[in-house]
Design goal:
Length: 249
Amino acid sequence: MTGWIVQAVRRGRLTTRFPRAPPGEEELPPTARLPVLAPLPPTEAQRRAARCPTEAIEGTRVDEGRCLRCARCLPGEAVADGPWDHLVPGPGSPSAPGGDPEAERSTSIFAAPFLRSIHVFPIDVGSCQACNLEVLALANPYYDASRLGIFFTPTPRHADLLLVMGVPTAAMEEPVRRTLEAMPSPKAIVAVGACAVSGGLFRSLPGRGSVGSAGVPVVYLPGCPPSPIQILAAIRRAVGVPRAAGERP
Ligand code: SF4
Ligand code: SF4
């Protein structure tokens, strides 16, 4: 026992300091950031848009919900260095229709901020597993979501938030509906990753559905996959906790 204590004291604190301190660069890889495109001559803009696997580029505007943060549209070895904490508007979100990211950033989807711990239930509706791994990382000692009052629950009957990962298809509509039915109110969805937000790479999949059609408020978190810090920030935003260091106003 004494050996464990000595070891722990020597090693020091390993858990991330987020949200007390802004996330470090190592916690936000370039794939967590949106590419920012400068005004370009039309031919160059077309060339960049042609490289985009999800047709997310219109002129210099990047559709955040579709963007996979792959940086193919950036020149040479450049990496994306845009914002990391964007939630995007989508069907069923507080700022839809029309899309107002500012409204999305400032609105809790629940009527009042949560004053208790929050229980989340993840559901995979057809992901490549990468989003699942990032969500699972919240339970490890580094991200340790439980220190922020965020807990995974094995049953939707105790869940406040449904984390949806993957492309929602017509075949999965019924399981998602039944899961939501089992959750007590108030309840909401966090759509984790480009697949759940916009279909991502699979947006032309026949029979693709939408998490927005479930009739429950949705927070849309883009990325492919979003990093654990982004998922933590999205859950906190969904339940209306005050903004943390490093998060955009
Ligand atoms: S998906 Fe890739 S190529 Fe398309 S806008 Fe995003 S970073 Fe650029
Ligand atoms: S958003 Fe990307 S990482 Fe997540 S499930 Fe889809 S393809 Fe996989």
